[in-house]
Amino acid sequence: MKAGDTPRPRWLKVFSRDTDTRGVLHDAGEVGGDVQATPSYSVRYTARERPGAVVTVYFYGQRTGARTYEVGWQVEKIICRDVRDPGGTEEWSAAEYGPSAEEAARSRPFRQAAHAEVAAQRLAREHRPEMITWNGIRPESR
């Protein structure tokens, strides 16, 4: 870490009555726009050191061509007043989408949406808090 960098907090997975035993929310909504071809799967994290900071990571199958699919993802970063209702109490948010061109070039496309959905669900189950690079602070308040 360079001098002046804000350390990343310890992100903790959120479990609720709506998630499975691994903290995955099934059919987490339409986050992939027109190219989303399967239900999405998400995991959510909060950090005690950053009250109000929430990260939700979504995975879903998306169309890449007439008959090909890949796994798309979205990382949603939110600062809110109540982590139990991030969208309803949001004060700031940002999102990143993928795959990047580099990621897409390295992956092989799926021939069926169902196969992309299985891969999306697996990626959500395997997601770990260490994968989050955000420090939990909105950019303009650094």
Give your account of this protein's structure.
The structure is a single chain. This protein is α+β, with helices and mostly antiparallel strands and 142 residues long. The protein has one domain (12-129). The chain has helices spanning 101-106, 113-126, and strands at residues 12-13, 25-26, 36-46, 53-63, 69-80, 90-98. A hairpin with a 6-residue loop joins strand 3 (36-46) and strand 4 (53-63). The mean pLDDT is 90.
Overall outline = globular
Rg, nearest Å: 16 Å
Which bin fits the share of residues in helices?
A: 10-25%
Termini gap? 16 Å
Work out the helix count. Answer: 2
* Topology pattern, helix = H, strand = E: EEEEEEHH
Secondary-structure-derived class: alpha+beta
User: In this structure, how is the largest beta sheet organized?
Assistant: 6 strands, antiparallel
| Poorly predicted residue ranges | none
Mean pLDDT: 90
What percentage of amino acids are in beta strands? 25-35%
- What's the number of structural domains? 1
Counted beta strands: 6
What are the SSEs and their pairings?
Elements: E1 12-13, E2 25-26, E3 36-46, E4 53-63, E5 69-80, E6 90-98, H1 101-106, H2 113-126
Antiparallel strand pairs: 1-3, 2-3, 3-4, 4-5, 5-6
Summarize the model shown:
The protein is α+β, with helices and mostly antiparallel strands.
Characteristic key phrases:
33% strand, 6-stranded antiparallel beta sheet, 142 residues, single chain, alpha+beta, globular
